[in-house]
Amino acid sequence: MPENVSLIRNRTEVGQGRSWGPGASARPAWVVTVLASVLIFTSVVDVLGNMLVIIAVLRNRKLRNAGNVFVVSLAFADLLVVCYPYPLVLHAMLHAGWLPGETECMVSGFLMGASVIGSIFNITAIAINRYCFICQANTYERVYGRSGTLALLALVWALTAIAILPNLALGSLSYDPRVYSCTFSQTTSAGYTIAVVTVHFLLPIAVVTFCYLRIWVLVLRVRRRVQSDVRPRLRPSDLRHFLTMFVVFVLFAVCWAPLNLIGLAVAVDPPRVAPLVPEWLFVVSYFMAYFNSCLNAVVYGLLNQNFRREYRRILMSLCKPRLFLQDTSRAGTDRSKPSPGNNNNEQAKPESL
């Protein structure tokens, strides 16, 4: 940890091989190797996994439904960090500092923030979708039609943009040599840091927790047959998909909680608390957050049989292109009535979004 908080944002001249802020070049080579390996592994799994998710939903008619619109959106949010920020972070690791200019730093920090906020907002949208589908069947039919779903999707990304733009106005995106990243500086403003953690993490987590707790209550009631006269819209496939998305939520909360808790602690008294946070703890919490971007697609494959089956078909098609075309044609011409047990949230009439 730098001796003074101001060192975090101390920028030296760019373009002559010097880094923004001291500390990165003094790190042992084996530590940099470990961090770079984690980032490379995360990037590879992120790209392959989330591309599989997107392709699976696009080519399988049974997976094209309202709920999976937000799953695809979540995959897109996870891919944002791989397209630009992660390569620059790896470049900074290899060169012991930030060599690109300030513009690249701002773009990298903006995209990383958009990925993080977009992810939590999409996870929140998925939880609300699950809650409406399982607990409020009548509401679900009215809200999650084609136009309603697309409007909610647009709202998710509009809120993401609104949430990230203040960083540009406040200048809170800067290079942090501890994590080789252009990212949100927790010491820029105590009030803004508290607002960020509250609006971007605590509030969405509270909404998701409420939705999933209500679903759990309904699941327990159904299993215990407390209300025998009620026929809730809950089938084994609905429960499996709920568990899948619940695991996605838990993993996100676990991976991002340490960094957000550190932010809250620092916001209490930045000059006094920030130097007390061990550098290793901050770095580990940051790379835990990085690692989360590659987990969702793996969870779908492990817990959702439809995604797992589609993953297998896509991978097999890499060796047999004819099989890919045949499966795509079969999926596109299958007019049979879908069963909710075969996908995430199909209804009596599937939606093609």
Descriptive notes:
The chain is an all-alpha fold. It has one domain (29-342): Rhodopsin 7-helix transmembrane proteins (Rhopdopsin 7-helix transmembrane proteins), CATH 1.20.1070. Helix content is 70%, strand content 2%. It has helices at residues 29-59, 66-83, 85-94, 102-135, 137-143, 146-170, 190-224, 236-268, 270-273, 279-291, 295-303, 305-319, 321-333; strands spanning 173-176, 181-184. Strands 1-2 form a two-stranded antiparallel sheet. Helix 1 runs antiparallel to helix 2. The longest helix has 35 residues, at 190-224. It is globular, with a radius of gyration of 22 Å. Keywords: Biological rhythms, Cell membrane, Disulfide bond, G-protein coupled receptor, Membrane, Receptor, Transducer, Transmembrane, Transmembrane helix. Belongs to the G-protein coupled receptor 1 family. One of its GO terms (cellular component) is plasma membrane.
